[in-house]
Write a structure and sequence with these properties.
This protein has 286 residues and is mainly alpha-helical. It is built from 15 helices and no strands. The longest helix is centred in the first third of the chain and has 26 residues.
Length: 286
């Protein structure tokens, strides 16, 4: 007589559990919802890193239509515009990000960066002024230095450049910018030093190499510095020296350097050829 009672109790327990558990359809729906969330997050990450920037822009624009208030989607669109160097479109996209109640100072830094890239220095300065002084990042001070440079506020620029260099493990580009700032002020020796440091930090940074050669050329030093360079870079740097010599009035020296650059380049070096031809025509006409 005890067995049926136990069995009935067991069945009652199963029925109670079954009554509390979701139905098969509901379980499947919830499972698919979870998968969609995971897939969407992964897809957004892909779009922000390895995807083609234009494809990423289209993805985030489509997503915004159904999620207009989501900050991460708006930020993804703004980042994608920046990645694609579509700065005119990036500026209003970042503006909307900054206006969102959940935005942070880093978003304002990105907004200012894109404003500078699009040529709106005044608005960029206004945006940077809204960022709390406690928000200290490399990008923030890099931009502060550039704005101070544009305003010819040299002491502020030097201070911001120095802070920026101390906040990154890859200071080559900011050292190059700092060096160019020094060069524009006429502090050539300090510019040379900063270009040299930039090259030591990143031996592949051709802009710093070219700027270093330009600084030497302004002092009528037409010899190439001892720095890492391949054959194409050597030809390009000789071309820069040649133009610097011509600008200084050392025309014969400039012609010789242009000829060297043409001979050094492993392919046809059209800019140097055009410069030499123009110079020879001018000389003949004169």
């Amino acid at each position: 007589m005890r067995r049926p009672i136990v069995l009935s109790a067991t069945m009652a327990g199963i029925l109670i559990v079954a009554g509390c558990a979701p139905g098969p359809d509901e379980t499947v729906d919830r499972a698919f919802q979870d998968v969609n969330v995971i897939d969407e997050t992964d897809l957004s990450d892909i779009m922000l890193t390895v995807a083609d920037p234009d494809e990423a822009v289209n993805y985030f624009k489509r997503t915004i239509k159904s999620n207009p208030d989501r900050l991460d989607v708006r930020r993804g669109l703004a980042v994608s515009y920046t990645r694609g160097q579509r700065y005119t479109e990036a500026v209003p996209a970042w503006k909307k990000v900054v206006e969102h109640p959940g935005s942070n100072p880093g978003d304002s830094v990105q907004y200012a960066d894109n404003l500078i890239r699009s040529g709106d220095w005044a608005t960029a300065e206004t945006v940077l002024d809204t960022i709390p002084p406690t928000f200290e990042t490399f990008d923030r001070y890099r931009l502060e230095a550039m704005v101070a440079d544009s305003n010819k506020e040299w002491k502020k620029a030097d201070s911001f450049y120095e802070i920026a260099v101390g906040l990154t493990t890859k200071p080559a580009n900011v050292m190059n910018n700092w060096g160019y700032s020094k060069l524009s002020r006429g502090d050539i020796k300090e510019a040379e030093r900063l270009f040299g440091e930039a090259i030591r930090e990143d031996p592949t940074l051709f802009t710093a190499k070219n700027n270093l050669v330009l600084a030497r050329g302004t002092q009528r030093d037409y010899t190439l510095p001892v720095i890492p360079m391949d054959q194409i870079e050597r030809a390009q740097l000789l071309h820069t020296l040649g133009l610097a010599a011509i600008k200084q009035g050392d025309v014969s020296q400039g012609k010789a350097l242009l000829k060297d650059s043409i001979d050094t380049h492993p392919q046809y070096f059209e800019p140097a050829v055009r410069a030499l031809e123009a110079l020879e025509q001018t000389t003949t006409t004169g």
